[in-house]
Design goal:
The protein is an alpha+beta fold. It has a single domain, classed as Cupredoxins -  blue copper proteins (Immunoglobulin-like, Sandwich), CATH 2.60.40.420. 22% of the residues lie in helices and 44% in strands. The protein has a five-stranded mixed beta sheet, with no helix packed on it. Strands 2-1-4-7 form a four-stranded mixed beta sheet, with no helix packed on it. Strand 5 and strand 6 form a beta hairpin. It is globular and about 50 Å long. Keywords: Signal. Pfam families: Cupredoxin_1.
């Protein structure tokens, strides 16, 4: 590899890294805690038409299965944190419900 090709390769790699870190910075991260009784907070407001990341910290021992956005499910193992990527969502309210414990739910409001 000659000197010019090496510099060009390094420049392209730097651009790719910059673009990927800029993309990661654009995704908002929202945190939820799941206890035996409920999710906290019970309502989260996010920007509409934007992809977001939701970190759910299951502080209980029991596994929960989360039902959301029409036929989407995600297992939340006991004692672990789980990341969900959702969106972009149209403006509105979206309810996320525990399948094993339907009383555990939270609402996302996309504005």
């Amino acid at each position: 590899m000659n000197g010019m090709t090496k510099h060009l390769t390094l420049a392209v790699m730097a651009l790719i890294l910059a673009a990927s870190s800029a993309f990661a910075d654009e995704i908002g991260v929202y945190n939820l805690t799941m206890s035996k009784e409920k999710f906290l907070p019970e309502r989260i407001e996010i920007p509409a038409e934007t992809k977001v990341s939701i970190m759910i910290d299951n502080q209980g021992d029991a596994t929960e299965k989360l039902n959301f956005l029409v036929n989407h499910e995600r297992v939340l193992p006991g004692g672990k944190a789980t990341r969900l990527f959702i969106g972009p969502l149209e403006p509105g309210e979206y309810k996320f419900v525990g399948i094993y414990h339907p009383e555990r739910s939270f609402i996302i409001i996309a504005k």
